[in-house]
Specification:
This protein is mainly α. It has helices spanning 3-23, 27-50, 56-79, 85-107, 118-140, 145-175. It is built from six helices and no strands. The N and C termini lie far apart (39 Å).
């Protein structure tokens, strides 16, 4: 077990703590835990690359940790009504669609290589930024409805564009 993998596992263990913090009405604590998870994501990647500690396990664990954190936060923020349900449904549905496509491809003996698309990277950055903004706004008592609306629309649009781009790439792969 390499140091980067241990850091990634710690990030996975932060997920229930962030969810608890949100549901317990402690958005400021949730914000700081979310920030710690973000720092750990950057740290595990840096350590793995800088010290040649990349592992196959890490290549699977890292995206699982990222998705577990984002999906959990979006669902929880929707449950406590800090964000509309539709955006959580869009975030979760996109990820379920991608996983379903990969599983279906494997089942049909046409494995698809997953490589992040540019729109997906931008989408992930927007999702992380918006979640941090919502937690910080609630935690610090900041009311910025205009910025909230822009972030919400941006996340919704990018999530849909990312889902469509992956679906198009998967359809091309399966037809070929």
């Amino acid at each position: 077990m390499s140091l980067p993998n241990i850091i990634t596992l710690l990030r996975i263990f932060l997920v229930p703590a962030v969810v608890w913090s949100i549901t317990a009405g402690e958005p400021l604590l949730a914000f700081w835990l979310f920030l710690a998870a973000g720092v750990s994501d950057a740290l595990d990647g840096f350590v793995a690359k800088r010290f040649h500690m990349q592992t196959e396990l890490g290549s699977y664990l890292d995206p699982v940790a990222d998705k577990a954190l984002l999906v959990s936060i979006y669902v929880t923020l929707a449950v406590v009504e800090l964000i509309p349900r539709w955006v959580a449904i869009a975030v979760v549905s996109r990820d379920v669609m991608i996983v379903g496509a990969v599983v279906l491809s494997l089942t049909m003996a046409k494995p698809v290589a997953i490589s992040p698309l540019l729109v997906s990277k931008v989408n992930t950055a927007a999702q992380i930024s918006f979640a941090a903004f919502v937690l910080a706004s609630a935690g610090f008592g900041l009311a910025m409805p205009g910025l909230f609306d822009v972030g919400l629309v941006l996340v919704g649009l990018l999530t849909c564009l990312s889902a469509a781009a992956y679906l198009a790439a998967w359809t091309r792969h399966m037809a070929g």
